[in-house]
Amino acid sequence: MRYLLMICADENWVGSMTPEEGSAMLAEYGTFMEEMGKRGVVQGGERLRPTSDATTVTVRNGEILASDGPFAETKEQMGGYYVVECKDLDEAIEVASKIPGARHGSIEVRPIWEM
Amino acid sequence: MTTDVESAIAQVFREEWGRVVATLIRRTGDWDVAEESAQDAFALAIVRWRRDGIPENPGGWLTTTAANRAIDRLRRAAKGKEKLREVAAMAHAEDPSDTDESGIADDRLRLIFTCCHPALPLDARVALTLRTLAGLTTGEIARAFLVSDSTMAKRLVRAKGKIAHAGIPYRVPPAHLLAERTQAVLGVIYLLFNEGYSASAGADLVRSGLCDEAIRLGRTLARLMPDEPEALGLLALMLLHDARRATRIDGAGDLVPLEEQDRTRWDAEAIADGLEVLDRALRRAQPGPYQAQAAIAACHATALDAVATDWVEIAALYGTLARMAPSPVVELNRAVAVAMADGPEAGLRLVEQLEASGALRGYRLLFATRADLLRRLDRRAEAATAYRCALDLTGNDAERRYLARRLAETSVQR
Questions:
Q1: Would the CB atoms of B167 and A93 count as touching at under 8 Å?
Q2: Residue in A closest to B120 by C-alpha
Q3: Cβ B119–A1 below 8 Å, yes or no?
Q4: Considering its fold, how many domains does chain A have in total?
Q5: What's the gap in Å between the CA of B184 and the closest CA on chain A?
Q6: What is the CATH number of the domain that holds A53?
Q7: Contact B166, A89 (CB under 8 A)
Q8: How high is the ipTM of this complex?
């Protein structure tokens, strides 16, 4: 089964990291990817720019509306994601628990709706 | 004669429903088909067994009949060759008792671990367990939890949907997850028991049916997990509490506190059973919170009266429990035991520490306990105030009457 693992955290907290903390976090992600690379579970994943760089697009009556910011204001924002192929939810939970972001923010595990 | 067959069928239903459903879920992978086919098999059993008598192996008869029904259902629903081939493969599959990673094969164990998976909301875990393992109808579960039939039906549909869509595995968890998941299963069974034992809302204090179901599930789990002393501990705890069920409420429906209960009416058989189960658990020398609570219940169950109770031992056991599973409610119970062992003043000191910590703010039993200790110290005005606070916070009719009676006693002018 495929799952989307959404890495959510308070952007303000992420933004306030010192350069040392930032590179320590990147190193942790490097270690995570190395392990998952060996296991072959990760199909894709990216880090996202903060919601201050987000644009929300809607189309109403054929008219395109683009506005600044995220669709909904929330306490935690999605800062990155992985798409993983796992045997079942237990494995997806295990993989999610090893994402460094799980220790500060939270990981939402969403099964992918296979067509 | 008919009634004999009927009660025998009712008993077979209780014993076999969970097993039949659990096996069919494994073989079909479809929870609805499994339940519906099990229902068909039981309906057919009533007709056949009345006419021909009960077969030698009723469980086997039911599983085979239900499996045939399931194949019929799936065949009707299957479209395309690929699907039909799957169904055909299932039809020929002898029931293989394949073991999973943990080496435990019983389908009911797979079912209970799946129903109690932490990714499901707690109310859904409880409902699914009652529906699939215990065989209660959606309507019965709805009434037990004071929600409408449609709410409960939706809850069950949503939970089954999540199991399928999110890929919650149908298995006994592997070793590295087993301890944590076992706790989740025990938690669901204990919650069920507590719902039955002290309904927190409504006029009916003992919805005893839920207690019976919880004990039945506890027995099944203890049998399926013979190496898990906490499963035995939970079973012992439930049996020892349940033994007092008849005396907890008086003729007028009022709550009777432990020290005033008629101990000659406690269920001696259940107590003996509970003590034996607890003994088996303790012999494994792997202590746990359920065993500690069962040991406390055992102290009460074996005492001649409240005064003769070994309160020193109980206070020590609450101390042990507080170390294993820290909780302000456990601390409150320890305070009660200390009050009995060392006098109300010592207990009151602990209650006041708890109050100062703020951990139980607005908890009715904190006020009720404080009130009882003040009453015993003959500090009537303060006791009356505390009883009033407790009264404001309780939603249970029998408890309200008990507190009102105490309030009246402490408010009387001498």
A1: no
A2: A89
A3: no
A4: 1
A5: 15
A6: 3.30.70.1060
A7: yes
A8: 0.89
Closest CA to B174 of A87, A1, A110, A101: A87
B179 touches chain A (CB under 8 A): no
pLDDT tens digits, B291-311: 999 999 999 999 999 889 999
> b/e map of A50-75 (b: 16 or more CB within 10 Å)?
ebeeeeeeeeeeeeeeeeeebeeeee
- In chain A, the residue whose alpha carbon lies closest to the alpha carbon of B117 is A90
Tell me the C-alpha distance between B314 and A8, whole Å: 46
Interchain CB contact of B184 with A (< 8 Å): no
Which of A3, A90, A109 lies closest to B169 in CB terms?
A90
- Residue B199 pLDDT greater than 90, yes or no: no
Residue A55 belongs to what domain range?
A: 2-111
- DSSP letter at B17 equals H
Determine the pLDDT at residue B207: 66
pLDDT single digits (tens) A30-88: 999 999 999 999 999 999 999 999 999 999 999 999 999 888 888 999 999 999 999 99
Q: What are the chain A neighbours of B119 within 8 Å (beta carbons)?
A: 89, 93
Q: Which residue has the tokens 């392990």?
A: A35
pLDDT, position B98: 47
